[in-house]
Amino acid sequence: MSFRGGDPGALEQGAEQIEQPGRGLEPMSKAAASAGQKAAGASGHPQVAGALERFAAAWGGELLGDAAASLTLARAAREQARQLRTVTEGGAR
Amino acid sequence: MTEALIRPPGDPESLYAAAARFGQLAGDASRTKGGVLQGVETALKTWESPRATMFAQAAGDMSKRLDATATQLGIANRVITQYAGALAAAQAAIDQYGRQHAAVQQELRQSSQTPGDDPRQDTTLQHLSQRQGQIERQAAAVQTDLRTAAARAAAALDAATEVRVKGAGGMSPDAILRYVTAAWNGIHQVYRTFKDWTDPSLGLVSLGQGFGQTGAALDALNSWRYAYDAELLLRQTRNLEEAKAIAVATVHGADDYRALRAWMQAQEVVSRFADDAQRATEAATTARAAFLDSVRVTSKLAKVCAVIGVVGGAYDVVNPQHDGWRGAADRVMGGVAVLAGGAQLAAMAGLLTLGPVGAGIVAGALIVTAAWTVGNLVWDHREQIGHAMETAGKWVADQAGRAVDGAKKVGSKIASGIKGLFG
Question: Scanning every residue of chain B, which has its alpha carbon at the shortest distance from the alpha carbon of A56?
């Protein structure tokens, strides 16, 4: 197995690229909840309304989890970059 | 007017609009996945190590989950569109039958009011009455069709809700929601204990309380996203011998180790504890493989990433950088047990001494590390946690509270539990 610590610049760039779309997931989860709520109200049928509410809650929650997951990934990449820089700077001293 | 002729409630236009929104969100989820994966590729371009592998696995899990989300949102788009069409058609048909029925009713009224002996009048009345019955039957059939469409739509949506998410340990979003909210409860419980962890004396009290909450702390730890960090955590149990001394001495302000020994009086127990801890570490090495496997297989931590992600990242936990008394005590995990009191220590030592080297010992070692680790985690990130839990947690609670039936079995408990967190 080979070990490469990574390029801090690339890691930070990757973190940014992950973070940007990841930040959009939380508003998406809210939009899903809102759409589900509106559809439930407009359905006129209690069975459909209930199913819509459950659907929106579940997948909205999933999107929220994915939002946090993406930010966690970005954070992990940043942390790796930080550690690499620390090691590099320490070695230079 | 008969029930069959009552216009079915509902607003097809709003349903169409909501369906379109779900369709749009499905596309957005797919695009988001693409964006995230691009960033992951960039990060992994020059990074290759066990940690990078875990990173890639986590990203892969997330990608699968976003795929599942996009698929199900797309299904919602189609189901709602279809139901909106059925509703619109039913409303139009019922409206039409209603008008026809009213017209026939009018004719009936006129015919019955007209005096005469014409036998054809009876036939006309009979015909009109039959016509009315026919309209009612047709309207009833439309109502039945709509009910069938509603049942199908609800079933399709429920199936889409219950679908197992790949990369999320085969759990459904509903189950994930429950899991995450339960983890939130556990973490918040610990958070409350440790949030005022401002000085050694408070720290001591917190640790004592925290020890009693190790169940919640363990839940949080077991749900950790990065298995690699769990591995590091297990490795740290090796520091138990040194840790117990440093923790007690530092927290209590003892200037030298002799004071500590005098204070402890349970030295023999501690020594046995340390010996057993060493064996626990050896057992942990074996257990680690199983732990990592289960983490990879079930990927349950993927669901808790919502919680853990906002808390701040596992690296901070296993490599804490603190000043002052916590800095020294950071080297401890087992010290927590020592501080928790003689009885608890004896129980712990008893467990370790009496039990075979195996899972029990590992669990014991983890228990004492958990309170300390989570305590530090919470204190360091108390503001983030407070904020994140307030915003995200309230939203989840809100959703859980709104859901009926299926969520009812979970919803009321979760909603009240989560709402209670912020009360």
Answer: B399
Task: Indicate the number of domains in chain B.
Answer: 2
The position carrying tokens 């011998």 is: B241
Alpha-carbon distance B355 to B360, whole Å?
7
Q: Please answer yes or no on whether B313 and A72 come within 8 Å at the CB atom.
A: yes
List the single residue in A with minimal CA-CA distance to B167: A66
Is residue B404 domain-shared with residue B286, that is, in the same domain? yes
Domain contains B167: no
Chain B residues whose CB is inside 8 A of the A5 CB are 47, 49
Q: Is residue B202 domain-shared with residue B145, that is, in the same domain? A: no
Backbone angles phi, psi at B65, to 5 degrees: -65, -40
Domain end position, chosen among B117, B143, B162:
B162
The ipTM estimated for the assembled molecules is 0.92
Q: What size, in residues, is chain B?
A: 423
| Cβ-defined contact of A14 to B66 (cutoff 8 Å) | no
Are residues B285 and B178 both part of a single domain?
Answer: yes
Question: Structure pTM?
Answer: 0.57
What are the tokens at A37? 């709520």
Last residue of a domain, one of B129, B162, B195: B162
CB B30 within 8 A of CB B66: yes
3-state class (DSSP) for residue B115: coil
B113 at interface of A, judged by CB pairs closer than 8 A: no
Contacts A3 to B, Cβ<8 Å: 48-49
Per-residue pLDDT of chain B (423 residues; tens, 9 = 90+): 689 999 999 999 999 999 999 999 999 999 999 999 999 999 998 888 877 887 887 788 778 888 888 999 999 999 999 999 999 999 999 999 999 999 999 988 888 776 666 767 788 888 999 999 999 999 999 999 999 999 999 999 988 887 766 555 556 666 655 554 554 454 455 445 544 544 445 444 544 554 444 444 444 444 333 333 333 333 332 233 233 334 433 443 434 444 334 333 333 433 444 444 444 444 444 444 444 444 333 333 333 322 332 232 222 333 333 444 444 333 333 222 222 222 222 223 333 232 233 233 333 333 333 344 444 444 444 454 444 444 444 444 444 344 323 323 333 333 333 333 222
Q: Which class for B13: exposed (0-12), middle (13-18), buried (19 or more C-beta within 10 A)? A: exposed
Write out chain B residues lying below 8 Å of A60, CB-based: 395, 399
Residues B115 and B177 in one domain: no
Range of the domain at B235: 173-421
